[in-house]
TrEMBL record, chains A, B:
GO BP term (any one): tyrosine biosynthetic process
Record keyword Transferase present: no
Annotated protein name in UniProt: Prephenate dehydrogenase
Swiss-Prot/TrEMBL keywords: Oxidoreductase
């Protein structure tokens, strides 16, 4: 693998570039972005070696697409049109159904591998890229059987080399479960931040009182709306379903408080403490 | 200060004991707990030097009460009955109205300082105690004017010496604002954990898909129900008010999704991103 094209050079694209280059200093990382300023920043940060444009993709051994998922759905067919017969295209989007669907009948479908590295942070843009982001993290690969075997092998070796565990799943299962364990957390966090900011708008120094617990629960409210709006749009059905369940649980908790049923409140918490075991090893 | 009595030797009591002893190795930390096993654990961990019982409090220079807030309300008048005229009693509870109220007419009210060190973690018990927990953290002191000046001075020096910033507030303001920036986060986290566990009860390995974002938002769901149930009970009115606002924001978000108003969804998130600036410095 010699010529790698990163479409999107932010947190995920940039971090992948750092690790891949570290493992193989001979690769040339070409950056592609709608905004030249982003490419200049990525160059300055040495995330990429060169700036490139879409037409250059014909020279790619590997194309990594790490842009908002609505942009991926729009761009992916064109990228597959452009890539050579031996070129591999992967995406890193947080939704998989729409992305897989848009290329299901593409003549170069076998050059594409759909994946989702579970390794974000709440930061975004080239300056958020860090080395070692993927060590020990899970990379969910969808519809692996639709990718040419040789390109599968190439991709899986590359991601194993940067420390990722691979997990296979179909796009529907991915989108459903990721709504539960990732997308909902973002909404809970954004709305928690909004609720408290609304209440304390005129008393900013109140946040002196906030401890690490508050910081932890609202951390995800720093996430990029550009990235997250299309995720919620594409995964609307699953997200609404789990959000409704969450709201109902909160309403139930409030009703228990209103009824002074603190024994039930205790049990709600006690039964959820079991999350300790579940979280072991996630960090 | 020579004889310090820690009533409750868990996360907060134990961590205070570690730091105080480190700053002045001559103090003797006496531990008091309902459960002898807890005291034995605290002794083994060297959090305390000796086991003691309530009657010994007459010998105390300082009594630190770090037990669930319902137990504090019950015990505090007795502790003040027992303490000598020069002894100082402080509590570390997450609510302040009921605690201050129960001793407002106590003849030894001036021997008591109500405080709330904002420095918890989601862990509990003696094994959760750590050195340096309070460095750079805020200690909220309520009704400082009701404490004898000399004992105020003593207490404030002690807490400054372990690295805390002091903030003064009345109990009503404390309970209101802490509902916003701490108590609500615990409910959002517990119910998030519950919602996802309920959905995924039969598919445990789905949690492989959870990343650090999920871990961060459900971290507080590991907290002790024994500690948190009485907090919600004592701060019921404030907690219900902010919980209702949170639920309404979540319902609004869900409705925007149902209406496909993703421009509004984007703006909801964009406006909340401002939490970045607010959180600077909280960690």
């Amino acid at each position: 693998m010699k010529n790698i094209y990163a479409i999107g050079v932010g947190l995920i694209g940039g971090s992948l570039a750092i690790d891949i280059k570290k493992n193989d200093p001979n690769v040339i990382i070409h950056g592609i972005s709608r905004k030249d300023a982003t490419l200049e920043e990525a160059l300055a940060l040495k995330l990429i070696d060169k700036k490139a444009s879409l037409e250059d993709i014909k020279n790619a051994d590997l194309v990594i697409i790490s842009i908002p998922v609505d942009a991926t759905v729009k761009l992916l067919p064109t990228v597959l049109d452009l890539v050579s017969d031996t070129g591999l295209v992967v995406d890193a989007g947080s939704t998989k159904v729409d992305i897989c669907k848009v290329v299901e009948n593409h003549p170069k479908r076998r050059n594409f591998l759909a994946m989702h590295p579970i390794a974000g942070t709440e930061h975004s843009g080239p300056s958020a890229a860090i080395g070692g982001l993927f060590v020990g993290k899970t990379n969910i690969v969808c519809e692996v059987e639709k990718t040419t075997f040789k390109l599968q092998e190439k991709a899986l070796k590359l991601f194993a080399d940067i420390g990722m565990r691979i997990r296979y799943m179909n796009p529907e299962a991915h989108d459903k479960h990721i709504a539960y364990v990732s997308h909902l957390s973002h909404i809970s966090s954004f709305m928690l931040g909004k609720t408290v900011i609304d209440k304390e708008r005129n008393e900013r120094d109140i946040f002196d009182m906030a401890g690490s617990g508050f910081a932890s629960t609202v951390r995800l409210a720093k996430s990029s709306p550009e990235m997250w709006t299309p995720i919620f749009k594409q995964n609307k059905t699953n997200v609404i379903e789990i959000l409704e369940a969450y709201i109902n649980n909160l309403i139930h908790f409030k009703e228990l408080m209103e009824q002074d049923d603190f024994e039930a409140i205790f049990n709600e918490m006690k039964n959820t403490n079991y999350i300790k075991d579940i979280l072991k090893g996630i960090s």
